[in-house]
Amino acid sequence: MSIEFAPSLTATEISPESFKSFVGSFPTGVTVVTWQDPRTGPGGMTVNAFASISIDPPLIMISLAVGSRAVEPVLKRGSFGVNILAGNGSRAALAFARRDTALCSDFGTEPGILGNPLLVDDAVAYADCDVEQTIPAGDHVIVIGRVRQASHTGQVPLGYLRRTFAPWA
What we know:
With 169 residues, the protein is mainly β. Helices cover 14% and strands 44% of the residues. The termini are far apart.
């Protein structure tokens, strides 16, 4: 299938602040992407750019900032965990959002089928994924993952809107 598009003839750039305000107006869930690095051990990073892509095959996508601590271990190992945080998971969201390495040992984890740590105590759902494809996108890389294992608890998930966490009912 081929789809062509025509770029806007009147396109203008917007400021980073305007763009952040625009995207910050969209409520999202909160995930922590986790990995098992052979050199440094388990790690994780808060990511809210997450979406389902396909049911058959089961594909999801995450978006990682180029140069973030997640890019190298996820792409080198070729797998990662995705943990959709539960409504009471703001402590985990803040801990894994820090720029220094957040330690999975501070949270209850179990290894997934691919060996990535899954935040079983703080997540409403979690999955272990193989990297299926990567797509450069500006200052980020979109990582499409094939879900190899998934589980959910039925709890209320954590939401994020305008720099504020809150449980979603």
